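Input sequence (152 aa), recorded before submission:
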Amino acid sequence: MNEGEEMMNRRSKGFTLIELLMVIMVIAILIGIALPRFRGLVEEGNIAKAKGELRTLQTAVESYYMHNSNVYPSTLTALTSQTPQIVASLPKDPFNGETNYGYEVGGTNSKYYVIYSKGVGTGGTASISSDAVSETSTNVIYVSNAGQDTKP
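Predicted structure, token format:
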């Protein structure tokens, strides 16, 4: 074997360190591009899930109101203990899976309610003040008979 053939045999047995580092770098760049987009999709999915579950809870609260002498429940857990049962179990807030959605009754003669998700960042709340919904964060997602949520 001449020196050129011997060099070719050594090279064809595997990849060089530089080639491996280049492949790893390209994979890292692709992950860096894809990860933020995936995170945005997860947040959009959680927003859609929260809005759907809040509308379901709103329907359950209105049903409770009609079947209980026009009085709103003091807590959402009252929906699970009714006979007949209105909801079997309360869903968890997708932005803080350890807690239920927030709920408050208030306003003139306690005729208004708000059911809310803490939203992206898990820091917001909503309440009833002066017969309107008051939010502590722009990320809060809510349903209410006192006003319409215009975000997100």
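Checked by second reader. The chain has two helices and five strands.
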